[in-house]
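Supplementary Methods, section 5.1.

A reviewer requested that the exact input to the structure prediction be made available. We therefore reproduce it here, unchanged from the version used in the analyses.
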Amino acid sequence: MRKWFDRTYENPAREALLKLIERATQSVQEPLQQRAGTLTRWFEPIVRDMRNRYTNGMTEGFNNKIKLIQRMASGLRHEHKRRKRILAWCGAP
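The structure derived from this sequence is encoded token-by-token as follows.
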């Protein structure tokens, strides 16, 4: 599927995905028909994801690291020390 959406123009990729959904819908296998329904319901988000490939992985990683540091620094009395520790672990000078 990914090579469909690597194309410069979006319409051929959309048409190819629609043909795949149509073939799966006409299949005699029920699990394939269910997957076709899922692809139909989530068609626009799938197309957006494949075209743009934006993720929030970096942000989630930083949030996870900050939460971990806060759990480890629960004994620190002063807020500015905890902030310094977070900045030191996240790579800030």
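DSSP finds six helices and no strands in the chain. These observations are discussed further in the main text.
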